[in-house]
Amino acid sequence: MKLKTALMGAVATVAVAQMAYADAHEGERGRDGEVKIIYWQAPSILNPYLSGGTKDIESASLMLEPLARYNASGELTPWLVDEVPTVSNGGVSEDLTSITWNITPGIVWSDGTPFTSADVKFTYEYCTDPESGCAQLTKFDGVTSVETPDDLTVVVNFGQPTPFPYGPFVGGESPILQAAQFADCMGAKAPECTDENFGPIGTGPFVVTEFRTNDVIQMVANENYRDPNKPAFASVTFKGGGDATAAGRAVMETGEFDYAWNLQLAPDVIAQMQEGGLGMPVAGFGPLVERIMLNNTNPDPSLSDEERSVIRPHPFLGDPAVYKAMSMAIDRPLLVEIGYGQAGKVTCNWVPAPAAVNSDTFTCDVQDIDGANAMLDEAGYLDTDGDGVRETPDGVPMSILYQTSTNAVRQDFQALIKEWWSMIGIETELRNIDASVFFGGDPGSPDTFQKFYADVEMYANTFNGTDPQTYLGNGLCDKAPSPATQWQGENISRFCMEEYDALHAQLTTTADADERASIARQLNDMMVENGGMIPLVHRGRLSAHANSLGGIDLNVWDSELWNIADWYRTGDNR
Amino acid sequence: MTDVSQQIQPPLDPVEPAALTEKPRNQWLDVWDQFRSHKGAMAGLIFLIFITLFCAFGPLIWDVDPGKLDIRNKDVRPIYTVLWDGDAKVSWARPMGTDHLGRDIMANLMQGGRISLAVGWTAMVLAILIGTLVGVLAGYFRRLDWGLMRFTDLVLSLPILPLLLVMMLLFRDPLRAAFGPETGIFILIVTGIGITSWMQTARIVRGDVMALKEREFVLAARSIGTPPRRMITRHVLPNVLSPIMVSATLGLATAIITESALSFLGLGFPSDFPTWGKILFDSVDRMVAFPERVLWPGLAISLTVLAVNYIGDGLRDALDPRIRGM
């Protein structure tokens, strides 16, 4: 009996201890003192409608909030509203031309005044004023009017059926401004309102006390924040400037700061900083993919300017046996390890995120040189003259030009991939081009990635938000760059397939989220299966936080500081 | 080294009367004797010969493919690291270590040195040829002087990096088609460096030629009807040889440095084509963890340039008959 009591006591103690542990970050507002954040690009304004810079948008997200935002896994989450409107819950009209938001009652601005639908309508008018030069105007594309039937209801009307109506007032790029504060800042006067732009009144967890342009922002907890126990920190010091290396060191080696944003550094450099023992890196994955684009047209230099990289087909890259063998010869896990470490994952897909659109059709994480060789042998690509390079059945040697931008990691990838392709009898000539030229888009330069005067080229691309419709449009036939379009166009590999175009057209008229994701996966598979590209690495964003900082949930779909109200001090390691 | 350029003397010392009884001594032996007495120049010459042999014949002995990737043996430290760090990853098969992709650093240094030295020598020869031609023409023929010197000023004001970028853009594809990717780029870079570094030579040579032109022996030669062509080859060129050789050595150093700078900026040769500058560029990111990767190519570049500068210094002294024998 005594034993049993003792055991019960022990169990109870453990349970209590666990509860205490779980509750360690619950408590009154401002209990954890100060948190210091460093962004190596310094904020210059706190109004996201007047700046497209990530640093400005993310620093402003501590004050200004949208109606709904994306969480760390890319799902739409209600923020200042009760629920996310959809067709099924009646929030989005059946004809897809309007969306109705119901604001949560009781939300107040940091000055104590109530947050109403008039503020939302004002934000729309503020950004769409023709003289204002609003940086987030694309968020309001297709919006014809915003109506406010009552104080807590907002109806956004679109000019045409919009299957994805979550552009306006969603995400850190489109937060709500206070009508009372910005009423005199409409149109051309918007940039002149220094006090307003440097200290916007918001519904967020913090309030600006001092803003020094391009240097530092001081903030204190918002006394009127909707959750009485949040934020855990009484004040925030938001420092801007420096470089990624210095920021990483300040968090992980010297402990001067608690959070550092976007550390674009080599994995071994990060690992070395981590040995400092004061902080750790966290990675978040958006849809950024490093890939090899396959030229579907003929880049032969002897062709005229009108024909080079315009006429189809490529002498041999269009054959499934060839591009599949090239893909099989690549050891992707090794590429990840060498180039990106924690900030990279193997991917076989063009659109690997959000999770719902990540196709699971292909596997590609095992290198298979023998299989690739067998595939090429079978397809009739043989080394007939014994020089180690295969020839096509027509006698064209399989020699390709592989270009990319000048960047240490990309040159390492080039060297490795060249070696692997030489093992399957494909000769590779490497070329690297200065990034400002390669991505510069100058129609007069032969070296831009749009012109694609090479057989394959490597770069990374991504899209904003979570809806891949526009991005998937990059595979449409008429998006191919050519002299007729001044070499503008996003279909870099000149992929062209009638079925693809038809399926994409279907996507633009589908509203159901699951069905959209399913179509997106099919489009992704078509592109990869039919020789548009060879995806290599799914790249993430790497930030670092102090070991003593808890509650971090790195979000690549919205502001990284989206949940700063939930951050807390763990108490140990300090 | 005394500055004696102000003294007016015939270019070749009158032979001492006592020497008349001896067998005439080849003047190049005198030059060599004088050169040998310059310790820095001798050290430089020995180093240059060593590094040239190292790069030219090294790969025959050290038979490792510089482009061969060996991921399992990446980040091997040089063998001497064992002296202070017993746990270091070292291997006798990789005496100077490997880079982050497992490429042998010694083989890369040799291959890179071949390219860097070849670029240096070829660009230097090109620059000297153009510079001497322009300098002599401008100095000797008064009618050409103004035009040629303004042209020199014009080229002098061209920034080399943007110029090379434009050249890359315009000529890379035709050259690649004609000579293949590596030779094509080689020609492009050598030409680029050559045609942007001849101006100093041209100016120095022009000045010297103008001074020489007024000298008595030139007047004498002209008075017996020597045509300009022969005048230049017989009388003028041999007497401006000394500044030309000096600027040649300096030109070699400049060409190696320019090529390194271009590679360092990621222009220039394809990324799988090592040069000293490129090895240096690729290693900078990991400089703290692997200092040897920047140390060796950096040392190779700076010591070669230093050696060549000393040789130039010694040559200047040795070729100047007024200093020789002092």
From TrEMBL, chain A:
<keyword id="KW-0732">Signal</keyword>
<dbReference type="GO" id="GO:0030288">
    <property type="term" value="C:outer membrane-bounded periplasmic space"/>
</dbReference>
<dbReference type="InterPro" id="IPR000914">
    <property type="entry name" value="SBP_5_dom"/>
</dbReference>
<feature type="domain" description="Solute-binding protein family 5">
    <location>
        <begin position="76"/>
        <end position="474"/>
    </location>
</feature>
<comment type="similarity">
    <text>Belongs to the bacterial solute-binding protein 5 family.</text>
</comment>
<dbReference type="Pfam" id="PF00496">
    <property type="entry name" value="SBP_bac_5"/>
</dbReference>
<dbReference type="GO" id="GO:1904680">
    <property type="term" value="F:peptide transmembrane transporter activity"/>
</dbReference>
<dbReference type="InterPro" id="IPR030678">
    <property type="entry name" value="Peptide/Ni-bd"/>
</dbReference>
<dbReference type="InterPro" id="IPR039424">
    <property type="entry name" value="SBP_5"/>
</dbReference>
<protein>
    <submittedName>
        <fullName>Peptide/nickel transport system substrate-binding protein</fullName>
    </submittedName>
</protein>
<feature type="signal peptide">
    <location>
        <begin position="1"/>
        <end position="22"/>
    </location>
</feature>
<keyword id="KW-0813">Transport</keyword>
<dbReference type="GO" id="GO:0015833">
    <property type="term" value="P:peptide transport"/>
</dbReference>
<dbReference type="GO" id="GO:0043190">
    <property type="term" value="C:ATP-binding cassette (ABC) transporter complex"/>
</dbReference>
From TrEMBL, chain B:
<dbReference type="GO" id="GO:0055085">
    <property type="term" value="P:transmembrane transport"/>
</dbReference>
<feature type="transmembrane region" description="Helical">
    <location>
        <begin position="183"/>
        <end position="205"/>
    </location>
</feature>
<comment type="similarity">
    <text>Belongs to the binding-protein-dependent transport system permease family.</text>
</comment>
<dbReference type="Pfam" id="PF12911">
    <property type="entry name" value="OppC_N"/>
</dbReference>
<keyword id="KW-1133">Transmembrane helix</keyword>
<keyword id="KW-1003">Cell membrane</keyword>
<feature type="transmembrane region" description="Helical">
    <location>
        <begin position="294"/>
        <end position="312"/>
    </location>
</feature>
<dbReference type="InterPro" id="IPR025966">
    <property type="entry name" value="OppC_N"/>
</dbReference>
<feature type="transmembrane region" description="Helical">
    <location>
        <begin position="236"/>
        <end position="257"/>
    </location>
</feature>
<keyword id="KW-0812">Transmembrane</keyword>
<feature type="transmembrane region" description="Helical">
    <location>
        <begin position="42"/>
        <end position="62"/>
    </location>
</feature>
<dbReference type="InterPro" id="IPR000515">
    <property type="entry name" value="MetI-like"/>
</dbReference>
<dbReference type="InterPro" id="IPR050366">
    <property type="entry name" value="BP-dependent_transpt_permease"/>
</dbReference>
<dbReference type="InterPro" id="IPR035906">
    <property type="entry name" value="MetI-like_sf"/>
</dbReference>
<feature type="domain" description="ABC transmembrane type-1">
    <location>
        <begin position="113"/>
        <end position="312"/>
    </location>
</feature>
<keyword id="KW-0472">Membrane</keyword>
<protein>
    <submittedName>
        <fullName>Peptide/nickel transport system permease protein</fullName>
    </submittedName>
</protein>
<dbReference type="Pfam" id="PF00528">
    <property type="entry name" value="BPD_transp_1"/>
</dbReference>
<feature type="transmembrane region" description="Helical">
    <location>
        <begin position="118"/>
        <end position="141"/>
    </location>
</feature>
<keyword id="KW-0813">Transport</keyword>
<dbReference type="GO" id="GO:0005886">
    <property type="term" value="C:plasma membrane"/>
</dbReference>
<feature type="transmembrane region" description="Helical">
    <location>
        <begin position="153"/>
        <end position="171"/>
    </location>
</feature>
